[in-house]
């Protein structure tokens, strides 16, 4: 069964600290993996996208890594800011259909305190 | 910021009422999607469309219906709302752009529906 599991479910950190969010998936075949940020009451916004051949991708203070062999990805946030408080969702796409079927994790709820 | 809009943002309605959630995008995307998301849970695809006059049901069974008469417009309708329909509904679109953004889905802000 194709699944995407994220950990931790929730995380509280102090402003300025770094953190790492984890994503494990069993989706096969694999096309790409995206990390989305979803602010409360808003739709998800894409942060990074990685294909099979990529093992790291940065977007400002966000750095995503991908290990396609172990089917694991992480999202590292550097020097956190209050505006980083949001849910971070890992999304994996397969190649099994023309639609590019997406499998969503439940997200990690990050809270940054001052 | 993606040019995809949803109205209303919040809706409180009584059981049995007919409702239509609006979704519009100005990016010229062919593909559009409707997702349902409960608090703390993953997004579930309920409807999608490849283009005008194309509609398909998603992975999660839903009593709602959709239509795609124009490329930019993908409304979702519930003929008779029930409390079990209480949820957040997210609309998204995607289209061929650069290889970097290929098939990235751009989401609207969502509609939070409460059925009493």
Structure characteristics:
heterodimer; A: 114 residues; mainly beta; six-stranded mixed β-sheet; 11 strands; 0% helix; B: mainly beta; four-stranded antiparallel β-sheet; 43% strand; globular
Unreliable residue runs of chain A: none
Q: Alpha-carbon distance between the termini of chain B?
A: 34 Å
Oligomer: heterodimer
Structural class of the secondary structure composition of chain B?
Answer: mainly beta
- How many beta-strand segments of chain B? 11
Structural class of chain A, please?
mainly beta
Instruction: Return the average pLDDT of chain A rounded to an integer.
Output: 92
Folded structure, characterized:
- The complex is a heterodimer of chains A (114) and B (116).
- The relative contact order of chain A is 0.33.
- The N and C termini of chain A lie far apart (41 Å).
- In chain A, strand 9 and strand 10 form a beta hairpin.
- In chain A, strands 2, 4, 5, 9, 10 and 11 form a six-stranded mixed sheet that branches. A five-stranded antiparallel sheet of chain A has the order 1-3-8-7-6, with no helix packed on it.
- With 114 residues, chain A is mostly beta strands.
- With 116 residues, chain B is an all-beta fold.
- Helices cover 0% and strands 43% of the residues of chain B.
- Chain B contains no helices and eleven strands.
- In chain B, strands 2, 4, 5, 6, 9, 10 and 11 form a seven-stranded mixed sheet that branches. In chain B, strands 1-3-8-7 form a four-stranded antiparallel sheet, with no helix packed on it.
- In chain B, a hairpin with a 6-residue loop joins strand 5 and strand 6.
- Chain B starts with a strand and ends with a strand.
- The mean pLDDT of chain B is 90.
- The interface between A and B is medium-sized, with 20 and 25 residues.
Helix-strand layout with pairing:
The complex is a heterodimer of chains A (114) and B (116).
Chain A (H helix, E strand, L loop, with lengths): L3 E4 L2 E5 L4 E7 L6 E7 L6 E7 L4 E4 L2 E6 L4 E6 L8 E8 L8 E3 L3 E6 L1
Parallel strand pairs in A: 2-11
Antiparallel strand pairs in A: 1-3, 3-8, 4-5, 4-9, 6-7, 7-8, 9-10, 9-11
Chain B lengths: L3 E4 L2 E4 L5 E7 L5 E7 L6 E6 L6 E2 L7 E2 L9 E3 L8 E8 L11 E2 L3 E5 L1
Parallel strand pairs in B: 2-11
Antiparallel strand pairs in B: 1-3, 3-8, 4-5, 4-9, 5-6, 7-8, 9-10, 9-11
